[in-house]
Write a structure and sequence with these properties.
The protein is an alpha/beta fold and about 300 residues long. It has two domains: about 130 residues, Aspartate/ornithine carbamoyltransferase (Rossmann fold); about 160 residues, Rossmann fold, CATH 3.40.50. About 35% of the residues lie in helices and about 15% in strands. It has a five-stranded parallel β-sheet, with helices on one face. Helix 4 links the parallel strand 3 and strand 4. The protein is globular. The chain starts with 14 loop residues before the first helix and ends in a 6-residue tail after the last helix. It binds aspartic acid. The site of aspartic acid (ASP) has 7 residues, from helix 6.
């Protein structure tokens, strides 16, 4: 179904293609042996020009669990990028060695550019403050598995909505589902970029922006917390001033619905107090595990496993 396709932005896949991935991920989760060894002989290049823990490790775990192999680098200093090689040339090379490329790069648009030079599928594992579509697949699968649906929900995003690429991708993706209300909670300096808001407006998505966490918390079915993205700030003083604007603690959790879930793309810095980890509504570690299953489903599909 997705054989040979690249994934650069969340909209690259239709809702039915995403549904298909979610059901495949569920099958893999329920049956450890399902699709095992199906990618034997296939190679995945993981090119990380920016730090990563979950995305890189879960892609590598996914590929290895499917019987394939991985090659690549975890930081640009160990690649020829450090000698001044262009992204286009690095991609041409990786495409000649591997069957698919997963890439994270600090520049917005880098994944799209890579897909133009690549002869194999490219998966965007984060391009600057722009998009992170496989985190979106992870987030949607988590919502579906834990709440049983991806419609008729009020989803609150809190923290750095300006630079948080996972927020941009997930907000755009949720806007494609029926009866979704989005609430964006952030300090004024870190509001959602205009280009995302104009997409939401064009789609008639119900959304509001606020600085008042406590007032909106009782409405939420999903609370999506985010870290203030230090690496995207021009000025360290601004980061220090804004980093602890919202900290989720037990008092704030007490205002939330009993069935609400708390998601976070991780890494967490200080914005979720560790005392919340034992609250049954804290779903961020489960979410990270769903990330591996959905990446297994994705790799199996784009590399054309016959069952897919
Ligand atoms: N891991 C996510 C990302 O790469 C979230 C974050 O870094 O805050 O965008």
């Amino acid at each position: 179904m997705l054989n040979g396709k690249s994934l650069i932005e969340p909209e690259d896949f239709s809702l039915s293609e995403m549904d298909y991935l979610f059901s495949l991920a569920e099958k893999i989760e329920k049956d450890e042996k399902y699709l095992r060894e199906s990618l034997r002989g296939k190679l995945l290049a993981t090119l990380f020009f920016e730090p990563s823990t979950r995305t890189r490790l879960s892609f590598e775990a996914a590929m290895l669990r499917l019987g394939g192999s991985c090659l690549g680098f975890a930081e640009p200093g160990s690649s020829s990028a450090a000698k001044g090689e262009s992204l286009a040339d690095t991609i041409r090379m990786a495409a000649s060695y591997a069957d698919a490329i997963v890439m994270r790069n600090p520049k917005e648009g880098a994944a799209l550019l890579a897909s133009r030079y690549s002869t194999v599928p490219v998966i965007n594992a984060g391009d600057g403050g722009h998009h992170h579509p496989t985190q979106t697949l992870t987030d949607l699968l988590t919502i579906k598995r834990l709440l049983g649906k991806i419609d008729n929900l009020t989803v609150g995003f809190c923290g750095d909505l300006k630079f948080g690429r996972t927020v941009h991708s997930l907000a755009k993706a949720l806007a494609r589902y029926p009866k979704i209300k989005l609430i964006f909670i952030s300090p004024k300096e870190l509001v959602l970029p205009e280009y995302i808001k104009s997409i939401l407006k064009k789609q008639n998505t119900d959304f509001e922006e606020s600085e008042n966490f406590e007032k909106l918390m009782p409405e939420l079915d999903v609370l999506y917390m985010t870290r203030v993205q230090r690496e995207r700030f021009f000025n360290e003083d601004d980061y220090i001033r804004l980093k602890d604007t919202y900290v989720l603690n037990t008092e704030k959790m007490a205002l939330g619905k009993e069935k609400m879930i708390v998601l976070h793309p991780l890494p967490r810095v200080n914005e979720i107090s560790v005392e919340i980890d034992s609250d049954p509504r804290a779903a961020y570690f489960k979410q990270a595990k769903y990330g591996m299953y959905v990446r297994m489903a994705l790799l199996a599909s784009i590399l054309g496993v016959s069952e897919c």
